[in-house]
UniProtKB/TrEMBL annotation:
The keyword Coiled coil applies. This is Tetratricopeptide repeat family protein. SUPFAM superfamilies: P-loop containing nucleoside triphosphate hydrolases, TPR-like. Residues 621-678 form a coiled coil. TPR repeats lie at residues 110-143. Gene3D superfamilies: P-loop containing nucleotide triphosphate hydrolases, Tetratricopeptide repeat domain.
Amino acid sequence: MEKQLISKSYYHTFIEGINNVEPIKILGELYKQEQQNEMPELSYIRFAQGEVYFLNQDFETAIFKWENVSNELKPWAQKNIADAHVEMNLLAIAEDYYNAVETDSEVLETEVLLQLFSLYIQLDDHPKAVDAIKQAVELNPDYSDVTDMARVFFEDQQDWDNAVELAVNEAKRTESLSWFVTLEEYVEDGHTAHIHPSYFSEVILPLYHIDQNRFESLATALWNSYQQNDLYFTWLEEINNLLVVQEPERSNTWSKLSNQFRVTYFELMNGKYLIHEFSYLIPTYLTNWMKLATASDAIIASSAVLSWNEIYPANLEASTINMAEGLLNQSDRYQEGIKDGVELYESVMKWADAEGLIVDKRNQWIISELQDLHQYHLMITGTETSGKGVFINTVLEEELSEEAANATVLYKDADNAKIHAITDEEERMIAEHNDFKETIKKEQTFISCRMPVSFLNENKLSLIDAPDLTNQDKFRSKANHYLNLADGLLFVINTDSNLTSNELDQAVKIKDQIPDLPIHFILCKSESNLDSQVAMERTEAMINRIHAYFPNAKAFTFSANEGRKNQMDQFSAFIQTIKNGHNIEEGRTASILYYIKKSIEFLLDRREEEEYSLMNKVEWNEEVVTKLKGAQHQLHDIEENSDQVINKSYNKIIEKWRQDLTMKLQELIRNSAELVDEDSDLGKVHMELNDKINKRINDYMEETVLPDLHVELQDWIEQSDSELNDSQTYLREMSDSLIIYMMKKRYLSSVTVKY
């Protein structure tokens, strides 16, 4: 019945089954018949008659019929009366009739609102049209086409706030993907960038459970929309809070969000923002990134987690750190690990270069070396008395290694000798032997020494000469940075002294740092009687003790007194045994990732140093500005005081002479009366009198006033000069004081230690 009332076809109820007769005639006959009843009910027929008249455009008659409807159809009749006035273009009257409709029918109320919506559009009354369609949507959103009408209207009017609100509400209500798509289009077109991110939390959270691909797409669109405005960090906090309680399915590839996390991470680190501005976001941010990262991004996400944890320990959950470590440990089984790792490192370096950040030069050299899979990197270390230097010099046939060296040196075979010294900030060529000897004394320096060495060439071996161990902390500071460059480690022990637990403890600690690093031992002998029973028993005891700690370790016995060729042949065979079964490629991926992590740490440290420097400069400049403002105020006060003193004394002189002249000139003029006597020519007396008075005044000015005034003004000039000199002296003292203060502050700032 409601459908009939809406379409004004209720009259079909009365003419059903009657053909070839005009509806108005049938209704007229029914009307007459109903009148014959004792208590006629004519409202139904009148309502139907009104419909027929309306459809035949006889609007006045239709209105007359509907005005006389008094039963339950009266609200519909009022609505129809308003419709008739619309057809007659009497819109103001139609509005009054629509607003007068009172009904409990949700359908009728919706129809009235839609009619008012159409009417207000005709009247070009945008606010009322918006109010009408929003009421209709709120009242009956499932009503046919009502939400689509609202959407089209808002879009046509470019009323994006209401369009977004409609899309958000309908997406939440219906969970229909079409509304989420509409909302995403609004976001991509920039219509939501000014809206607080929390407004969208209630719509994107349900989408996560409905369609994760669409969730990722919408979240990425929102992310991009906030990237360039003041709500950026608020959005990052919002998406972090939303994702942290979710457990994304690993089967789903979150490529868009993973990329967004990576790009944003580098953006946060590029110097545009201060770290303290976003540090509160990072723990949750990195946790979410780890959960969503693709296979390639998981590497850098893990590196970022571990880097941040080293700089800000206790900020990250243990589970996140464990996950990062696990991913890096698995990276050696990643088939394209070396290739992708190098590409990742290059992208980090490219980004750092674009941002003007200094990168650690040592890591660049090391990663280049790690790509050479034809070379086995063997690190050699030991205690100060182990004889490590003698052994390395024997291998190289050069007196290059020293027991007291602090630098780490990579010896590699090459046709021509080239030596580079690399620190975190620079690299340089070394051409002189003395320069080399001085450079190896410097800590945290990495030296690449390429020269013709037949033994290294024949065994495809690169030797890493690490500093001697005095204690574990020293090893950490000097050589630990290069441990991941090694494919294996030789720990040198002097057999002439008893093997101490401290030496083995240091070897065990190295093993703890890199569990997968093979550790073997060199036993150096210097006794002349190498084959003595005592020497052999001591060596055997050492080997047994080593195997108690390192069951798979191999040991090579070396003597400085034995012929080189024989020993090098044996050592060559020893090298082959430790290389057999060792897949270099498996460990190189993890090593590359380690140095990527170290590079990120280095960049982050530099960022912090730069921030610290900038904050010091800001503080310094603010203090200088404060001091200068104070000096400016003092200068202004001095100027005003000097100006008042000088002007006051000058005005006092001038005023005194003005008063004296006023009295004296009057006296001179009065005394000029004696110049007139009985013999004076009355025709010329005024002229003669004027000349004589002027002469008396001029004589008085030149002989009396000007000399005395000159003396007083000279005194005034001297006093003013003294006053200005005093001010100048005070200003000079103030300037000197300010310069000393600034120099002192600059010196203190330069020697202040960051931590």
